[in-house]
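Input chain follows. Return structure tokens only.
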Amino acid sequence: MAVYVLNEWFWHDASGDNDEPRRDAAYKVIVKLATSDDQIVVVCGGVYWQKMWNFCSQCTEGMSRVVVRLFVHSIFYNADRCLIINIDDLEEIEEDLAALFNEDDHYLVRAQVATDGSCIVSTDGKLLAELQRLGRSCVHRDEFIKQYLEKI
């Protein structure tokens, strides 16, 4: 089982903001995650949380609605697929560590610290470079999608 901390790129992709192939890939990740042993970490009160609910509430028809229902019922409401942590329950990161990252990314690092062995999936090159330098598990969205969709 792998544990992933996704940031808000996922919902931009799923909504089609980033382009149609990325939207389709996000849908495939949802389908695969729903049937896998893997888990995502969702920080209640974080940017991901806001984007997730914006996307879910705006999808009222078609394939987007089917994907939202699959996400909500098979992933979000399933404790084996989704670990929900309230942002107020996450410990603050140390000041020297916090200084390395944009404030908007602190919730990701805090979630990773709280979930042993998790991997941050992001598109932010600076964030990924700092995480790699610190020896923390992370991967760029494009590599994650490629590897995840090829995973047996």
